[in-house]
Automatic annotation (TrEMBL):
<keyword id="KW-0812">Transmembrane</keyword>
<keyword id="KW-0472">Membrane</keyword>
<comment type="similarity">
    <text>Belongs to the mitochondrial carrier (TC 2.A.29) family.</text>
</comment>
<dbReference type="InterPro" id="IPR023395">
    <property type="entry name" value="MCP_dom_sf"/>
</dbReference>
<feature type="repeat" description="Solcar">
    <location>
        <begin position="6"/>
        <end position="92"/>
    </location>
</feature>
<dbReference type="GO" id="GO:0055085">
    <property type="term" value="P:transmembrane transport"/>
</dbReference>
<dbReference type="InterPro" id="IPR002067">
    <property type="entry name" value="MCP"/>
</dbReference>
<feature type="repeat" description="Solcar">
    <location>
        <begin position="98"/>
        <end position="183"/>
    </location>
</feature>
<protein>
    <submittedName>
        <fullName>Mitochondrial coenzyme A transporter SLC25A42 (Trinotate prediction)</fullName>
    </submittedName>
</protein>
<feature type="transmembrane region" description="Helical">
    <location>
        <begin position="100"/>
        <end position="121"/>
    </location>
</feature>
<keyword id="KW-1133">Transmembrane helix</keyword>
<dbReference type="InterPro" id="IPR018108">
    <property type="entry name" value="MCP_transmembrane"/>
</dbReference>
<keyword id="KW-0813">Transport</keyword>
<keyword id="KW-0677">Repeat</keyword>
<dbReference type="Pfam" id="PF00153">
    <property type="entry name" value="Mito_carr"/>
</dbReference>
<dbReference type="GO" id="GO:0016020">
    <property type="term" value="C:membrane"/>
</dbReference>
Amino acid sequence: KNKKGISNMEFMFCGGIAGAIAKSITAPLDRIKIIIITNQKGGSYQQAKEIVRETVRTQGWQALWRGNSASLARIIPYSAGRFFLYENLKYIYHGDSESGLIPFTIASIVGLGSLAISYPFATVRCRMAVTGVERYNNIFDTFNKIYRQEGVKCFYRGFVPCLISIPPYSGLKFLVFELLKYQHKILYPNHPDPDVISRFLYGG
């Protein structure tokens, strides 16, 4: 257990569940975004509403979550590993302090490792999001067809741009979160630990 008295398994479990819930809630928005990008359609609010109406009319409400199984297969180990490694490395190299650039560096490294492992699932999720069941039936069918028709390299198509963007994205996200928690302790010395709503706002 770390200094907070939380075991490694608890960190991984909580991180995985948090990632799964967040991804499932936002899955319809993610699919609409992917459809707009891949079809090169306008990104207006009206266009988004039209995509939702057409998707529901032709495929049903459940189609808004198409590809979410691939997202969950990616995000659960990604989030579990990220929170586990981040929290453990933070207390090894940073002690109890909640400020500084150490969170940025640690989160950047953890983000790169997690991305490399989970990226094939992101590719599968995008393929499923922009196609119907007549092309890719499920996550296993999608993996199999991509591998047979396009090879292993296709799973990492677009990986380099993501590789470049992850360190600042992941690093800044955790850095800002830690700085906000640190300021919370200063502003509210009688309640140094942020409540659930505060953590939600700081994380957002």
